[in-house]
């Protein structure tokens, strides 16, 4: 069942309760899309902490590009996990084409670009997330 208040639809899509927690919400398709639009990985962090964490995420993302996924039951690790996270950030389905990935990146990059959001400190952080997600999805 969907964890959104008042929704009785099937909750098929997991969403993190917080950036530092393994606990997940389970949402229906409509509410996972809403959650993804509003999700801020860096919520609750100061600008300095958010920037430091974003830099660390970008640095470690490069290491994942060359790792493989290991079959350890139903939990996903390695490339598959990074790909799934990147698809979630760009609000794409698992079977997204290269053209769809590029279009989603362009749309979100324009939306969150720091040059067009001078008064929004969260926009720069979201822009970094979008850029990292695109890199994860396009690295061969």
Distance between the termini: 37 Å
Helix content: 40-55%
Number of domains: 2
Multimeric state: single chain
Radius of gyration, in angstroms, nearest whole number: 15 Å
Structural class: mainly alpha
Largest sheet: 2 strands, antiparallel
* Neighbour order of strands in the largest sheet: 1-2
CATH architecture of the largest domain: Orthogonal Bundle
Q: Categorize the overall geometry.
A: globular
Question: How would you describe the overall organization of this protein?
Answer:
This protein is mainly alpha-helical. It folds into two domains: 1-39, no CATH class; 45-138, Helix Hairpins, CATH 1.10.287. It is 52% helix and 6% strand. It has helices at residues 29-38, 47-64, 78-89, 98-112, 121-138; strands spanning 13-16, 24-27. A two-stranded antiparallel sheet has the order 1-2. A hairpin with a 7-residue loop joins strand 1 (13-16) and strand 2. The protein is globular.
């Amino acid at each position: 069942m969907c964890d959104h208040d008042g929704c009785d639809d099937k909750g098929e899509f997991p969403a993190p309760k917080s950036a530092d927690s393994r606990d997940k919400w389970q949402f229906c398709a409509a509410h996972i899309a809403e959650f993804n639009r509003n999700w801020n990985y860096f919520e609750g962090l100061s600008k300095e902490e958010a920037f430091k964490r974003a830099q660390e995420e970008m640095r470690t993302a490069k290491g994942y590009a060359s790792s493989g996924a290991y079959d350890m039951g139903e939990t996903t690790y390695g490339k598959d996990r990074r790909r799934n996270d990147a698809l979630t950030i760009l609000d794409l389905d698992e079977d997204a084409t290269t053209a769809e990935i590029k279009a989603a990146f362009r749309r979100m990059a324009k939306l969150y670009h720091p040059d067009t959001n001078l008064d929004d400190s969260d926009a720069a952080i979201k822009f970094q997330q979008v850029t990292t997600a695109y890199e994860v999805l396009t690295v061969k």
